[in-house]
UniProtKB/TrEMBL annotation, chain B:
Record's protein name: Uncharacterized protein
Organism the protein comes from: Profundibacter amoris
Keywords: Signal
Signal peptide coordinates: 1-21
Entry-linked InterPro entries: Multihaem_cyt_sf
């Protein structure tokens, strides 16, 4: 049901109904208000629900990752509102850089490590309340509304992806609510992905020029990532566990 | 005789109660946006139920266009402090605290959610005017059709 | 056999003193919980590397002992050994008390203990933890029913036997579930093993009986009731067998792990590296908790005294604590092997051995759980007719010579 008084931009060119404004984000679009229908409107595509046909994943090229670059970690912490406070044992780390040296060959490498968004996540299996869950599009998340803070998922994760929030949090990012007593981990920037964007770490890695991280839909045969995975060797970490991670590494 | 006394007592009690209630009734800060079409009383009773339902849509299904998003509640109901910045739930005068302290119901949301709107919103709050009465009426008319 | 007379314990000053001390510990635990809940887990020694700490060691220990404490009753009701019948009520009460103490510690250490209702109403049934919530709560119900049918009049022995069997089966499921919390974690070399569930079952036999003997051996003299030395000897022999069984399962677990190259680093860390876990294993678990008590109880078993059996029980409890500390904390201290064959460093403690120092708050919480168990058991024997007046050998087995 369209209500011309509210939406007619010719009447109020530079002003906006405040409520409409919030929903529209950066771009302004006309909004249809009808009973039961949301006021949301987006500049680009309509807000997408999690799509079961998609499987979001990443490909990380270890050769392109430089040992003294921390762009992905910085970007993630700014996007999601966590930070390293000088207490490395209790500070949360959604993503971290790992420096490797092969015991036999001496080869050195560096790579970013975050939640691997497994297809068969051990953390989802063990969560007693079901707060740790996998979305239909493959993103593994913690529903912090029902997390009781038992930390069993932290015991179960083979990749040490999860952190516990050890103290009260203030000034959270509105896109990444996080609080004391619950468990958290990389969300694959689900708030960005749901609006058609890419995770902050991938974006920042491209911005540095290294371009070690690629993000996309693993199920779409025409996507850049699917093509890369098809044509070049890659591996998932701890492939022997058969959890089938959505994050894959090449040149490791 | 006793019934008369009883009625008198009840009336005294009610008026005292009313008087007391009036003086302790929370001073609810005005919101900055259009009023809820459902009505304030409805929202007072049902806001948690509505948020709980919609939050599951967002968290589990990725629906970011839900109607009852706490992000928007916080933005529209932001209360400005003396420095013209929104105040957090830690301070007296925060919108949610006004009623929740009166009703003695602990707020769990702001352990994880920010009780202030994000920076970008504040400037925009200042720029955009509130809806006029005509607009509100038109919206409500539209709702009822 | 004389008819066993059960009577409430009269609270003497000594018992009041014990109650007061236990209450003080419970109070301290309560304060510790409030402090931890207010400030967050940053005030504890637990962190992102050692995720489960001392409270969990206490909790699992109490839970395992709880299921084992029921053994004495099960031997009577399920396996028909009538000599255990007089102790069956106390066995049931003690198992409820220990479980309550353990669960209290476990639940109060949650990051969000205010969400306990969520834990009890929302279940993810692929999680053994979720099953455990049901098993633990059901245990109270089943053992409660078992106590009831034992204590109520005019209940046929067949009913007691059925309920007793149900309690026995339930407690096996519960202990299997507790062991599987660790056994079903594929991520860590210290846990991922099928033997965890049976190991926990046999640990429950050993620790539960040790607790039972210890508590019996202290409450009976305190209340002026007599225990016959043969009874103590018999329980002592059984305890010795259980201690050896625990050693056996431990040996199998480590030998199997040692055989696999992928677990060699972990086994070296636990068994030979000289870390705290090495000391806890060899001195705490094997020597104090296994070899010494087994020798005391099984060598010249016919000459074991009451004192020796009680001492052996204490040693087994100490060793059991060391055992669980080694399993729970040791399994987390060793870093995850995400990149086999690589040396690994990061800002998130990858590749390094993690250390853990429990704070006073964790000790307070853990000991509060033990104190809670003591209080519940104490309140039970004072309020209800749980303790038999007389456990003399003559009373239990008329063919025994009178001591």
């Amino acid at each position: 049901m369209k209500l011309p008084a509210l939406n007619n931009k010719s009447e109020r060119p530079a002003e906006l109904n405040r409520r409409e404004f919030f929903k529209s984000g950066a771009a302004v679009a006309s909004v249809t208000l009808a009973p039961g229908v949301t006021l949301m409107a987006f500049g680009g595509e309509a807000s997408a629900n999690a799509d079961p046909g998609k499987r979001w994943g990443m490909l990380i090229d270890v050769n392109k990752c430089s040992a003294d670059c921390n762009a992905c970690v910085t970007a993630c912490s700014e996007e999601n509102g966590w930070k390293l406070d000088g207490n490395p044992e209790t500070d949360p780390q959604w993503i971290r850089k790992i420096d490797l040296k092969h015991k036999e060959t001496g080869r050195e490498a560096s790579l970013p490590m975050m939640c691997q968004h497994c297809e068969e996540p051990p953390c989802v299996d063990v969560c007693p309340t079901g707060a740790s869950f996998k979305r239909v599009d493959g993103i593994v998340l913690v529903d912090k509304h029902i997390c009781i803070g038992c930390r069993y998922c932290m015991m179960a994760c083979p990749f040490k992806a999860r952190s516990f929030v050890h103290e009260a949090v203030e000034d959270q990012k509105s896109n990444a609510p996080r609080g004391k007593g619950t468990v958290e981990s990389c969300t694959l920037c689900v708030h960005r992905v749901d609006k058609g964007g890419t995770p902050a770490c991938v974006e920042s890695c491209s911005a540095t020029g290294n371009g070690a991280m690629m993000f996309g839909d693993l199920n779409d045969p025409n996507s850049e990532i699917a093509q890369a995975l098809k044509n070049y060797p890659s591996m998932g970490l701890r492939d022997d566990l058969r959890v089938n991670p959505g994050i894959r590494y090449t040149n490791l | 005789m006793m019934r008369l006394v009883a009625t008198l007592l009840v009336l005294i009690g009610l008026s005292t109660g009313a008087a007391m209630a009036e003086s302790t009734y929370p001073d609810i800060p005005k919101a900055v946006g259009a009023p809820h079409p459902e009505g304030n009383d409805y929202m007072r009773i049902n806001h948690m139920r509505l948020m709980r339902h919609d939050r599951d849509l967002t968290v589990h299904e990725g629906d970011r266009s839900i109607k009852y998003s706490i992000k928007e509640c916080v933005a529209c109901h932001a209360v400005m402090g003396p420095d013209a910045l929104p105040i957090s739930v830690q301070e007296d005068g925060h919108f949610c605290r006004a009623c929740h302290e009166y009703a003695a119901v602990k707020i769990d949301c702001f352990q994880c959610h920010n009780s202030k709107p994000e920076d970008g919103f504040i400037d925009l709050l200042k720029q955009t005017p509130p809806a006029t009465d005509d607009e509100i009426q038109a919206y409500l008319d539209g709702m009822s059709q | 056999m004389d008819r066993t007379v059960y009577r409430e314990v009269k609270p003497t000053p000594a018992i009041w003193l014990m109650a007061a001390i236990a209450a003080a510990f419970v109070g301290a635990a309560g304060l510790a919980v409030l402090y931890i809940e207010h400030h967050g887990h940053i005030v504890t020694g637990m962190n992102n590397q050692i995720v489960w700490g001392l409270p969990h060691v206490f909790a699992i220990f109490l839970i395992v002992a709880a299921s084992g404490a029921l053994n004495v009753a099960s031997i009577a009701s399920v396996f028909g050994k009538i000599e255990n019948k007089p102790m069956a009520r106390y066995s049931g009460l003690l198992s409820i008390a220990l479980l309550a103490g353990g669960l209290a510690v476990l639940v109060l250490d949650l990051g969000r203990p205010d969400r306990l209702i969520v834990a009890m109403t929302t279940y993810n049934f692929t999680s053994i933890f979720a099953w455990n919530v049901i098993l633990y709560n059901g245990f109270f119900a089943v053992v409660g029913a078992y106590l009831f049918v034992q204590m109520a009049r005019n209940i046929s022995p067949k009913v007691v036997r059925s309920v007793g069997t149900a309690a026995f089966v339930w407690r096996l499921a519960l202990t299997t579930g507790t062991g599987s919390i660790f056994g079903w974690l594929v991520a860590r070399p210290g846990y991922d093993a099928a033997i965890m569930a049976p190991l926990f079952i046999i640990m429950s036999f050993s620790f539960g009986l040790a607790f039972f003997i210890l508590v019996l051996g202290t409450t009976f003299p305190m209340t002026g009731r007599y225990i016959g030395p043969n009874l103590v000897k018999r329980l002592g022999r059984l305890l010795g067998v259980f201690a050896v069984a625990v050693l056996y399962f431990t040996a199998i677990r480590h030998l199997t792990n040692l055989y696999a190259a992928e677990h060699a680093d972990f086994e070296y860390f636990i068994l030979f590296s000289g870390s705290i876990y090495t000391k806890l294993f060899w001195i705490g678990q094997v020597l104090i908790g296994g070899v010494i008590p087994a020798a005391m109880l099984l060598r010249h078993a016919e000459n074991t005294t009451k004192g020796q059996v009680i001492l052996a029980s204490v040693l087994i409890i100490i060793g059991g604590f060391a055992h669980l500390y080694g399993i729970i904390i040791g399994g987390q201290a060793f870093p995850l092997e995400i990149f086999p064959m690589y040396e690994v460093t990061s800002t998130f403690a990858d590749g390094q051995i993690n250390s853990y120092t429990p704070t006073i708050y964790e000790w307070a919480l853990g000991m509060g759980g033990v104190a809670l168990a003591v209080m519940i058991a104490g309140m039970g024997v004072v309020a209800l007719r749980i303790l038999p007046m007389n456990l003399s050998d003559r009373n239990i087995d008329p063919t025994e010579p009178d001591f």
